[in-house]
Write a structure and sequence with these properties.
A 5-stranded mixed beta sheet has the order 1-3-2-4-5. It is globular, with a radius of gyration of 18 Å. The longest helix has 20 residues. It is an alpha+beta fold and about 240 residues long. Helix content is about 40%, strand content about 10%.
């Protein structure tokens, strides 16, 4: 495909578990990626991806896994047929890092497939896996996918095109860290885990202008560590922190 073209990914979300919640969610997911906001507005804003709702947790991506994306971005991603196997290999490495104290996984349970993105959940983590993800567009006013499962008639009151990720307040990160900043600096589901993934799969990290450095805690710290130590940044920074 031409790099300036855009591609839409749709699927029959929830077909194996047909419930009224999945029916509502599938309808809203489809409406979003087929909307003028994602097809026209996102293009004018030069967004790499667009969908109903973008969540940076447990990994950057769109709950429900429907999206519109620039072909120039998609062509940088690893082949989707290889992604699940790459996830499995990485899972083994993460468990070793947790065992030796380099990382912790306090925010989510890495043994839960949907959290880590293994088996049938692997491809739900695919489109947001590249450090060049860049500008993201979405149309949901709420951060909860469960909101969109409750009714098929929610869209008019809760639909707003946006390109800014409204992150948790600094107080939230402070509360999570408690008295020990290593709580965030060792957390797999924050920048330490993402840095390891980006280097493992793509050999690079986001550019200095990326939203990830300001959205997640300790962004400036990790940018400095990456400049100094590149792919060994997490191991070096967290050596002796446990």
């Amino acid at each position: 495909a031409h790099p300036r073209h855009r591609v839409i990914y749709l699927h029959n979300k929830g077909s194996y578990h047909e419930t009224i919640d999945n029916h509502h969610f599938r309808r809203h997911l489809t409406d979003a990626v087929m909307s003028n906001d994602c097809i026209e507005h996102a293009s004018s804003e030069d967004c790499n991806v667009c969908g109903l709702l973008f969540n940076p947790f447990p990994e950057p991506g769109f709950p429900g896994n429907m999206f519109l994306a620039k072909c120039s971005y998609v062509r940088q991603l690893v082949h989707p047929a290889k992604f699940a196997a790459m996830k499995d290999i990485f899972f083994g490495k993460v468990r070793k890092f947790i065992a030796d104290g380099t990382l912790q996984a306090a925010m989510y349970n890495i043994a839960t497939d949907w959290c880590f993105g293994r088996n049938r959940y692997a491809l739900e983590h695919w489109v947001g896996s590249h450090p060049a993800l860049g500008k993201v567009c979405y149309v949901s006013r709420t951060h909860s996918p469960y909101f969109w499962m409750q009714s098929v008639d929610r869209k008019p009151e809760h639909w707003k095109f946006d390109t800014v990720l409204h992150g948790p307040p600094a107080a939230w990160w402070a509360e999570y860290a408690g008295q020990n900043p290593q709580n965030t600096r060792r957390e797999f589901f924050l920048l330490p885990g993402m840095l390891l993934k980006w280097f493992e799969w793509y050999g690079e990290v986001p550019p200095p202008t990326s939203w990830v450095w300001s959205w997640y805690p300790d962004g400036e710290f990790w940018r400095t560590q990456v400049v100094k130590y590149r792919s060994r940044a997490v191991e070096v920074a967290n050596a002796g922190a446990h």
